[in-house]
C-alpha cells in the first residue's frame, strides 16, 4: 500500500513539474510581450473633452441664446426651418451607432466583405422612401408618425406601434452606450461608468435644452469628428501595411473578398440576398417608419430638401461602411497569424479595433483620443435622436392621444424638455440592468430589427392596401410580433447554448509570441432547429411581410375597408392615383413639388385642399 502511494506521489510530482515550467514560461512571455503597448495620455483626454464641451456649447447656444423655443413644434421639429445639409448629416449620424463602428470592421475581419453589399441597400432605399412614403408624411405633417396609424386605422394600432418604439429605443440606447464603453474600457483603460455617465450627461443636456435644432447641429459636428477619426485610422493602417493593393491581395488569398455569394439559403448569415434584399427592407424600416427619421424630415420646409438630404445621408453611410470595410481588411492583414480573440488578448470581437488603435497608433499623442471621440460622437447622436423622438411620441400619442390632455402651445416646449430629461435618466438607469444581464445585449440589438419590421408592415398596410381595416392591422402586427420574437429569441438561446456557431473565415494564433498550441478557427453550425438558423438580416422582412399578409387576410374575413371612405391623403401616391388622384412623377420633382407631390382632380381640388387630415 505504501509503495502504491509513493508511486502516485511520484507521478503527480512529474506531471506538476511538467505543467509548471510551461505556465511559468507563458507568464514570463506575457510580461515580455504585453497585450497593450500604450494607454490613454493627457493629450487623448484633452481631445475627448474638447468634443464633449463643443457638443454642450451647441446645446447652450440653441437653448439659451438662440430664438426662444416656446411651442412643442419649435422644440421637436426645430420650427421646420433647418438646413438641408445639417439634416442630412444628422440623419446619417443617427443611423450609424457606436456598436456598428466597432462591430463592422470586426465583422468583415471575421466574416469577409460580403456585408459591404449593404451599400446597395442604401441606394435602393432612397427612391423607395422618396416616392412611396415621404409624400404622405410631408402632406400630413404630423409631429408623431404614429398618429398616421390612428388616422388610417384606430388608436390601438397607434398605441401598439408607439409603445413598441418606446420600448425598443429605451432598451437600445442603453445598449448602444454601454456596449462600446465597455469595449473601450478593456483596451484604453477608460472607466466604463465615467464614460457612460459623460455620454448621458452631455447628451441629456444639449438634447433637452436645445431641442431638435441642437440635436441636428450637434449631429453635424459629431459626424465630422466621426468621419475624421475613421479616415485617419484607415489611412494610417493602409500606409503601415504597404498600401491598398497589398492589403487587398492578402485578404483575397484568404477568400475574404466576397461580394456575390448567391447561396439562396436563408440560414447563410451574409449572402447577396440577405444583405441586399433583407438589408433593403431593414433600412426601409429605418427610413420610412422610424419616428426619429420622420421627425427630421419635418424639420425642413419642402419635400425637395428631404429628397436631397436622403441622397446625401445615403452616400455618407456608403462612405462610412466602405471605410469600415477597408479597416476590417487592415485588421486581418495585421492579425491574420495571431488572432487576439483566440489568443485571449481580448474578450470580445468589438475590442479588436480599439486594440489596434492603442497598439499601433497609441504613440501618436491625441490620435487614440480622436478615435474614442468619434465613437462617443456616434453614441451621442443615437441617444439624442432617441430622446427627441421619445418626447414627441409621449406628447402626441400618450398625453394628447391616450389621456386627451390639452397641452397649451406656450408650454409645449417645457413639457417636451422635461420628458426628454426623464427618458434620458431612465435609459441611463437601464445601463446598470443591462450590465448585470449580459445576454440582454444581443437581444436588444436583434429586437431593433424585429420591431422595425412590424412597424413598417403597419405603415405599408395603411399606405398600399386601401381595403385593409383596423382589425386586420392589429391582428397582423401582434401575430407577426409573436412569430418574429419566437424566431429571434430562440436563435439567441440556441447561440448561448452553443447550438449555433458562425461560419467564420479561418484565422490562426500560430505566430503569437506566447502561443503554446496552434488553433485555427473555422466554426460550423450546430444542431439547432432550422428556423433558429435564419439570418438576422431577414427578421425585418419576415415581420413586415407577415404583418401585411395576415392583415389583408383578417380584413377579408372581417369586412374590407371601403376605399371611398378613406381620406386619400393617407394613401401612397401610386395607390392614390388609382382612386382618381393625379400624382406627379417622382423623378420630375427632386427639387420640390407643388402641394408636396399630390395634385387633385379639378372636380375635387377645392374640397380636398380645405380638408384637414386630423379631423
From TrEMBL:
PROSITE patterns hit by this protein: NA_SOLUT_SYMP_3 (PS50283)
Signal peptide from the UniProt entry: 1-17
Transmembrane segments: 43-65, 85-103, 115-138, 159-184, 190-208, 220-238, 270-288, 309-332, 370-393, 414-434, 440-461, 473-494, 536-560
Localization, UniProt: Cell membrane
GO cellular component, one term: plasma membrane
Keyword vocabulary terms for this entry: Cell membrane, Ion transport, Membrane, Signal, Sodium, Sodium transport, Transmembrane, Transmembrane helix, Transport
CDD domains given in the database record: SLC5sbd_NIS-SMVT
Keyword Flavoprotein: no
Protein known as: Sodium-coupled monocarboxylate transporter 1
Molecular functions per Gene Ontology: symporter activity
Membrane topology: Multi-pass membrane protein
GO BP: sodium ion transport
InterPro entries with a match to the protein in the record: Na/Glc_symporter_sf, Na/solute_symporter, Sodium:Solute_Symporter_SSF
Keyword Ion transport (UniProt): yes
Family: Belongs to the sodium:solute symporter (SSF) (TC 2.A.21) family.
Main subcellular localisation: membrane
